[in-house]
Design a protein that fits this description.
With about 425 residues, the protein is α/β, with parallel strands linked by helices. The protein has 3 domains: about 160 residues, no CATH class; about 160 residues, Rossmann fold, CATH 3.40.50; about 70 residues, no CATH class. The strands form 4 sheets. A 6-stranded mixed sheet has the order 1-14-13-17-15-16, sandwiched between helices. A 4-stranded antiparallel sheet has the order 2-8-7-4, with no helix packed on it. Strands 11-10-9-12 form a 4-stranded parallel sheet, sandwiched between helices. The protein is globular. The two termini are about 15 Å apart. The structure holds iron/sulfur cluster (2 copies). The site of one iron/sulfur cluster has 15 residues, from helix 13 and helix 14. The site of one iron/sulfur cluster has 14 residues, from helix 10 and helix 11.
Length: about 425
């Protein structure tokens, strides 16, 4: 993989309509739906039965696998169903459905974890149920056990997707937890250097971070240009440290561990109070939403409750997106539940989805210029249509991070990112994707 001098990506309209909002608390929903796969790795087994009474923070799903993360009840009440569930990403698992008693009584066993060393620290982070809150959903305790020595913690506060403001809000409210989390990670991973990467469209956060850490020589705030996809892991590591994560490598291979800012704040809170991951702060926005908001909700809350809380729709909802418009997943069900890695729900109206009909490629090369990894999306699409597996491998489709920059700039509206996803699937099925 060759990198451009600056992996600056593309300019997108950021539409951070809720940047100045106050975070609101959703009333406790009537039911929550908790899928057993809300992370990358092994799905959890259901640990409760229909009819069981549960308290907030009680484990309802877990796995013996290290690469997994337990699922906890987000409301107190009764388990009324255990049902089949298919996520917007197409992943099937069981889901525990809890009818809330609205009391929000906590599991009496909740207590701060006792930590006497690195292994206890990893166990505690796993027990918290934490997965990457930036959207990836990778179990955090696995990330905190890097292969090889790391010397740098890069904190992802870029939040480069349009509309999404939840990390920004959390970071502004929880600087003490951020500091505490950084201290723990530095201690247990023996890290000497911390870099917080923030896009320059969040000047208040940059100022707050610079003021807060002004006395701390080991923490640097790196102001990043507001260009998409600054928050993509490989891009962020390059822009903050100058280190290149080459093909087949992980951040740890260049001495870096990358964590989302919200994940660090949550981890620090858990280490202090022992309350696992049972709620999520997310941005609700898009042209169809009457009153865009940033809302803290129990995990598993059905989307329709979020829309009602935002005053419903001011225009016909035409497309629901879990996440941001660049990398988010289209959702077709108003009852879809809020998942751990769900940082936004956007609802677009007709005006926002008009004008996306595909036409023939005019060979303008814009998609190539936009790709942070110098891939050739138009050529990839041609190879994918021809099912030319060798050419797909030669053109390195495996390096596509599905950021959507190529589709965004394409004047012919070619759906290049979807084509790349299909190409990778084709290679996985027929040719062995590395
Ligand atoms: S940007 Fe679109 S039209 Fe231009 S070369 Fe790429 S696929 Fe073709
Ligand atoms: S989606 Fe893939 S091919 Fe397109 S710009 Fe992003 S990395 Fe490049």
């Amino acid at each position: 993989m060759s990198f451009k001098k600056s992996l600056s990506g593309i300019k997108v309209r950021h539409c951070k309509n809720t940047a100045g909002a106050t975070v609101e608390i959703l009333p406790v929903p009537d039911i929550v739906v908790l899928p057993m796969q809300q992370h990358m790795g092994t799905p959890c087994d259901v640990k409760v039965s229909v009819g069981d009474e549960v308290k907030v923070g009680q484990i309802v799903g877990d796995s013996a696998s290290f690469v997994s993360a337990p699922i906890h009840a987000s409301v107190s009440g009764k388990v009324i169903r255990i049902e089949d569930y298919v996520s917007p990403m197409g992943i099937a698992s069981k889901a525990v459905v809890i009818e809330s008693d609205k009391k929000q009584e906590r599991d009496p066993n909740i207590a701060p974890p006792v930590i006497n060393g690195y292994n206890d620290f990893l166990k505690a982070v796993r027990a918290s149920g934490l997965v990457g809150l930036g959207g990836a959903g990778f179990p955090t305790h696995v990330k905190l056990k890097p292969r090889g020595r790391v010397d740098t913690l890069v904190i992802n506060a870029a939040e480069c997707e349009p509309y999404i403001t939840s990390d920004h809000h959390i970071a502004m409210m929880e600087l003490d937890f951020l500091h505490s989390g950084i201290t723990e990670i530095k201690k247990y991973l023996d890290i000497s250097r911390v870099i917080v990467g923030v896009e320059d469209n969040k000047p208040d956060l940059i100022t707050a971070l610079e003021d807060y850490f002004s006395y701390n020589d080991s923490v640097t705030v790196k102001k990043l240009r507001s260009k998409y996809p600054q928050g993509a892991e490989k891009v962020l590591v390059y822009e903050t440290t100058g280190r290149i994560i080459a093909e087949g490598m992980l951040p740890a291979d260049v001495g870096v561990v990358v964590m989302n800012i919200n994940s660090i704040c949550f981890m620090a809170r858990y280490l202090q109070n022992g309350v696992p991951l049972v709620k999520r702060t997310l941005t609700i926005d898009g042209g169809a939403i009457a009153n865009p908001k940033v809302v803290t909700v129990p995990l598993g809350t059905p989307y329709k409750d979020l829309f009602d809380f935002c005053g419903g729709f001011k225009s016909e909802p035409r497309k629901i997106i879990m996440g941001g418009p660049m990398m988010g997943i289209t959702v077709y069900d108003f009852n879809s539940p809020v998942l751990k890695n769900n940082n936004a729900v956007l609802v677009f109206d007709q005006a926002q989805i008009d004008g996306f009909e595909e036409s023939a490629c005019i060979r303008c090369g814009r998609c190539v210029r936009a790709c942070p990894f110098n891939l050739m999306p138009a050529a990839l699409e041609k190879a994918r249509i021809a099912e030319d597996l060798d050419e797909l491998r030669n053109l390195k489709v495996n390096l596509c991070m599905e950021c959507g920059c190529c589709s965004y700039v394409c004047p012919a509206k070619r759906n290049l990112v979807t084509s790349n996803k299909m190409a990778k699937k084709l290679l996985r099925e027929k040719g062995g994707l590395k």
